[in-house]
From TrEMBL:
One GO BP: isoprenoid catabolic process
A single GO molecular function term of this UniProt record: lyase activity
Organism field: Acidocella aminolytica 101 = DSM 11237
A Pfam family this chain is assigned to: ECH_1
Superkingdom per UniProt: Bacteria
Protein name: p-hydroxycinnamoyl CoA hydratase/lyase
Family, as annotated: Belongs to the enoyl-CoA hydratase/isomerase family.
Keyword tags: Lyase
InterPro entries: ClpP/crotonase-like_dom_sf (IPR029045), Enoyl-CoA_hydra/iso (IPR001753), Enoyl-CoA_Hydratase/Isomerase (IPR051683)
NCBIfam families: PRK09120.1
Length: 270
């Protein structure tokens, strides 16, 4: 397999389908994959024919987390500099994904472990197969959930579920992951792609400037006081207006003057 093949992608009807593509290694993330994923994200982010990005995995796994051999053992054997570089590369593309220009959806088709929680959280929305299995398996091989995984657990789960999940190293299926808030929803694997396509198509009908401002706002205000959030949101909308001042005016016009839609029931015509 060539180095570029570890990530597969295609663009169909404005949806970029990006896949972890090391199925024979359950899509665990080695340095090659991490570097390639950053390149692919770069390539797709500002393409006009891309409106939504979906991240899924080839084969039976979404991602079996970090590659214990190549990311940990072999990198550590090269010293601290190599370890830090490998960390920068993996954390780097997850961070890039957290603040991606386009809406992002994790389509979790199978195994999702440890380091996989980084890109899982990085995606704005997440849909899982009921058959998928999620685990913070770090404790099972003797480390804490690093690389942001503990933070993801605390952000998304209740205190008790986060503690149990991280300390016990037991897996939960897609349904439980949805009940816990780790993903939005779980559907049978056979229906997963259709459901994600429907969600992506709905997002494609919304104002893209407003979507980017909204997803950033959701991530940012969590750690602000109410007063700071109020101020940030005023400024964020005003900044969005500088890119797209006509969009919201058109949204108001179609509702108030044209009476062609109701914002409470759907989106205006782009
Ligand atoms: N790191 C390195 N190699 C891996 C990883 C991984 N995370 N996951 C799977 N592989 C490799 C296996 O070593 C095996 O390689 P081989 O064919 O050369 O022997 C191949 O992928 C297939 O794996 P199997 O274990 O044979 O696949 P199976 O379908 O039976 O099991 C499962 C899948 C449950 C995902 C299992 O591979 C597994 O437990 N993987 C590790 C999951 C994990 O704990 N990841 C680390 C999380 S912690 C962190 O990311 C910091």
């Amino acid at each position: 397999m060539s180095e570029t093949d570890v990530v597969a992608f295609s663009v169909e009807n404005r949806i970029a389908w990006v896949k972890f593509n090391r199925p024979e290694k359950r899509n665990c993330m080695n340095p090659t994959l991490n570097r390639r994923m950053m390149e692919v994200l770069d390539e797709l982010e500002f393409r006009d024919d891309v409106g939504v990005l979906v991240l899924s995995g080839e084969g039976t796994a979404w991602s079996a987390g970090m590659d214990l051999k190549e990311y940990f053992r072999e990198t550590e054997a090269q010293g601290l500099g190599a370890t830090r570089k490998a960390q920068r590369e993996s954390y780097g593309w997850w961070r890039r994904l957290r603040w991606y220009q386009k809406p992002t959806i994790a389509m979790v088709n199978g195994w999702c472990f440890g380091g996989g929680y980084g890109p899982l959280f990085a995606c704005d929305l997440a849909f899982a197969a009921e058959e998928a299995q999620f685990g913070l398996s770090e404790i099972n091989w003797g480390i804490l959930p690093g690389g942001g995984a503990t933070k993801v657990a605390v952000e998304l789960l209740s205190f008790r579920n986060a503690m149990y999940h991280a300390m016990m190293g037991e897996n939960v299926d897609g349904k439980t992951a949805a009940a816990w808030g780790l993903v939005n929803e779980a559907v049978p694997l056979a229906k997963l792609r259709d459901r994600v396509t429907d969600v992506a198509n709905a997002l494609l009908k919304k104002n893209p400037v407003a979507l980017k401002a909204t997803k950033d706002a959701i991530r940012r205000v969590g750690e602000m006081t109410y007063e700071n959030a109020e101020d940030y949101l005023v400024r964020a909308q005003e900044a969005a207006n500088s890119y797209d001042n006509d969009g919201r005016k058109e949204g108001i016009r179609q509702f108030i003057d044209e009476k062609s839609y109701k914002p409470g029931l759907g989106a205006y015509r782009l």
